[in-house]
Amino acid sequence: MDDMSDLIQGWFDVRRFDNGVTMIGEPLHYEDVKSYLIEGDTDVAIIDTGMGVGDFAALVADLTDRAPIVLQSHAHFDHIGASSAYQRVLVHPSEAEDLALGYPNDRLRRWCEPGYLSGPLPAGFDVATASIEGVDWAMPLVGGDEIDLGGRIIEVFHTPGHSPGGLTFLDREARILFPGDAVYAGPMFAYREGSDPALYRDSLRLLAELAAIVDNIFPSHNRVPLTPDDVVAMHEAYEQVWAGREPDSREADHDVYDFGDFSFWLPPREG
To answer: Which of 90, 40, 33, 39 has its CA nearest to residue 63?
Structure first.
């Protein structure tokens, strides 16, 4: 990012969209992770809490005077950074243990090395000591649940594949979808521990169906928003892979299927 003058704390990119949705991005890290504040009449929710770099909780407190409900799309480190600052945290049971463990300094600091950054870390962030505190009080959140924010219902869908407890959130009335890491512009991963390429196929099929009833998709990384056509294209591309399309490149631990604006990184194909 070339112009950092508008970044809050020198780290966060805050963008307000229609229908009470505020994006909190972290564009100076290669993950370019996004969290979202969703406002209802009586309550607010936060989808994920970032990387743990910068004072996320203080930023949210400037955006709303209500104590948020944290909805974890999943429990990977770049989505749980400030979750321990909140009392109401919900996560899929299959990732509750990961959330409770947090992320120690010896793992977090490697993600803060210069090669992952396109600008300085915020003032007061000490790479040598920083860690993400675990959350062992999280409540379960599963597909079929509904979060009532007062005049606004957030529907929950289980969309595993990238991770076992991946969740997607739908605001049916506002026609908005929040798919977490299930779809986004860029490399989509389903080859690491906890991933499942077959379940990922089912999730992409579901997301393509949900895309038909929304206008905007707010993913957890990179370009925002996506269009319904983007998600349908991702689903159709994955079906090509599933039908036997050859990878465009092979790495030691994954194959890469490149579709231009996005790609899939999957376990090496046998044979």
So the answer is: 39
In a domain, 3, yes or no: no
Q: Is 223 part of any domain?
A: yes
Q: What is the DSSP string of 167-189?
A: EEEEETTTTEEE-TTSS-SEEEE
Residue 62: which of 19, 14, 122, 121 has the closest Cα? 14
- Read off the DSSP letter of residue 259: -
Amino acid at 82: A
Determine the Cα–Cα distance for residues 115 and 92; give it in Å rounded to an integer.
Answer: 32
Report CA-CA distances (Å) from 239 to 201, 202, 243, 255.
Answer: 8, 10, 6, 16
Structure tokens at 264: 């899939």
What is the residue range of 100's domain?
Answer: 13-266
* Integer Cα distance of 265 and 271 in angstroms: 17
The CATH number of whichever domain residue 235 belongs to comes to 3.60.15.10
Q: Residue 270: exposed, middle, or buried by beta-carbon count in 10 A (0-12, 13-18, 19+)?
A: exposed
Note whether residue 234 is domain-resident: yes
**Unique residue bearing structure tokens 């159709």:** 236
| Number of domains comprising the chain | 1
- CB of 184 closer than 8 Å to CB of 234: no
β-strand partners of 157:
168
E-assigned strand segments in 105-145: 139-140
Q: How far is CA 154 from CA 41, 99, 169, 173, in A?
A: 13, 22, 6, 9
Give 10-residue mean pLDDT values along the chain (271 residues): 77 96 98 98 98 97 97 98 98 98 96 96 94 98 98 98 98 98 98 96 98 98 98 98 97 97 94 57
Phi/psi at 201 (5° precision): -60, -45
Is 1 contained in some domain? no
